């Protein structure tokens, strides 16, 4: 039987028409899908610009559902969740991105960084630490190290903090020398609390060698020397520090006075303290001078014509600057006509001056009666001026 080619000729146009119709249908559907995704995206962007975050999230979720392969939509959605405090949802978005096998290296590093930020904002420090450590060797390396340093300092893991600070120092992004010295001093304080004075001394010597201009290593070393009975060595350390860091004298004036008494070098200490007081009058330096039996020079109009007593140093201080603290200290040993009311008046003055004797962080304003090298409020280093609130 012969094959009829007429059917073949008729079927070719029919197949062509059907193929064309199918392609047109697919293209129309693809255009519709692509049209819907940008509309949702731009609608979400408009909501975001108008600070309508709830509506923006709904629009971005719709866009992600229409185009699940778009990384930028996932990042935008995750960042929105984090900003709203919905950290669990932000984590799910970024973990979903990391689970994709087709993600580029740059986007994978970006997703890992975003995930670490989610954990940090949520306060999940252990998980944040693990996520940040995976960023070593990436473009986010220095940023992740800074975040790790903050975590270790906040949790008082000083050995780990010192290791990270050393890496940052070696990267030449900024100088972390003084901060590393603080870490060594903190480790020394922990060793002292455990009763290991030898280990504490070794750590403090490292801190002094690392940051010879920083006041804390020298002050902590002098305190340890004084504790071990080496008052003369402690005095020498603080006397040398007074040349390098004269503005920090109020912090260690009391320790210097104790070392001078122990080493029987009160004359040297008085000369040093008075020289520092003349440059920057301070109630702490004044009281160290008074404790050694000295006093600043009285102004002519404050002279009583009698032999001045050490407590008259408070009057001399009032000539330099008005001070409720100095006035209260002077009045404490003064005799009045109605002496029976003196204790009540003195208690009221002491209560009024107590807030003035605090130290205040220059970064966050946190106040404390104790001087802190590391602010408990904002975690900043060296943010406390060495002067009391009244003297600022």
Walk me through the topology.
Elements: H1 5-49, H2 53-66, H3 71-83, H4 87-98, H5 105-122, H6 125-133, H7 141-154, H8 158-170, H9 177-193, H10 197-210, H11 215-227, H12 231-244, H13 249-263, H14 266-279, H15 283-291, H16 313-320, H17 324-331, H18 342-353, E1 359-360, E2 367-368
Antiparallel strand pairs: 1-2
Can you describe this structure?
Strand 1 and strand 2 form a beta hairpin. The longest helix is centred in the first third of the chain and has 45 residues. A two-stranded antiparallel ribbon has the order 1-2. By secondary structure, the protein is mainly α. The protein is elongated. The chain has a domain of 109 residues: Serine Threonine Protein Phosphatase 5, Tetratricopeptide repeat. It is built from 18 helices and 2 strands. Helix 4 runs antiparallel to helix 5, helix 8 runs antiparallel to helix 9 and helix 17 packs antiparallel against helix 18. One of its GO terms (biological process) is regulation of lipid biosynthetic process. Keywords: Cell inner membrane, Cell membrane, Iron, Membrane, Metal-binding, Repeat, TPR repeat, Transmembrane, Transmembrane helix. One of its GO terms (cellular component) is cytoplasmic side of plasma membrane. Belongs to the LapB family. This is Lipopolysaccharide assembly protein B.
């Amino acid at each position: 039987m012969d094959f009829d080619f007429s059917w073949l000729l008729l079927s070719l146009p029919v197949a062509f028409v059907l193929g064309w119709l199918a392609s047109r249908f697919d293209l129309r559907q693809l255009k519709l899908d692509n049209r819907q995704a940008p509309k949702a995206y731009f609608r979400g962007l408009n909501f975001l610009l108008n600070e309508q975050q709830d509506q923006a999230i709904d629009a971005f979720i719709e866009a992600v559902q229409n185009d699940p392969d778009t990384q930028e939509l996932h990042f935008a959605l995750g960042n929105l969740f984090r900003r709203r405090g919905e950290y669990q949802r932000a984590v799910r978005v970024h973990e979903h991105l990391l689970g994709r096998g087709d993600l580029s290296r740059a986007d994978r590093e970006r997703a890992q960084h975003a995930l670490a930020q989610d954990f940090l904002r949520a306060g999940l420090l252990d998980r944040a630490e693990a996520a940040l450590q995976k960023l070593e060797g990436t473009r986010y390396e220095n940023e992740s190290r800074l975040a790790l340093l903050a975590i270790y300092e906040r949790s008082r893991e000083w050995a780990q903090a010192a290791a990270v600070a050393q890496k940052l120092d070696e990267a030449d992004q900024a100088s972390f020398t003084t901060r590393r010295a603080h870490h060594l001093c903190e480790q020394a304080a922990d060793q002292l609390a455990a009763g290991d004075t030898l280990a504490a001394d070794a750590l403090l010597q490292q801190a002094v060698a690392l940051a010879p201009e920083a006041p804390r290593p020298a002050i902590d070393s002098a305190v340890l020397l004084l504790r071990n009975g080496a008052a003369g060595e402690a005095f020498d350390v603080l006397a040398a520090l007074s040349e390098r860091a004269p503005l920090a004298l109020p912090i260690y004036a009391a320790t210097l006075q104790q070392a001078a008494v122990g080493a029987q070098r009160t004359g040297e200490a008085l000369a040093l303290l008075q020289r520092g007081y003349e440059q920057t009058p301070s109630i702490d330096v004044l009281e160290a001078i008074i404790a050694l039996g000295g006093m600043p020079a009285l102004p002519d109009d404050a002279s009583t014509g009698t032999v001045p007593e050490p407590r008259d140093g408070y009057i001399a201080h009032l000539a330099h600057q008005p001070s409720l603290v100095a006035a209260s200290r002077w009045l404490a040993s003064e005799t009045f006509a109605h002496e029976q009311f003196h204790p009540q008046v003195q208690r009221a003055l002491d209560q009024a001056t107590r807030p003035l004797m605090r130290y205040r962080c220059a970064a966050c304003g946190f106040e404390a009666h104790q001087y802190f090298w590391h602010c408990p409020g904002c975690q900043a280093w060296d943010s406390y001026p060495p002067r009391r609130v009244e003297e600022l």
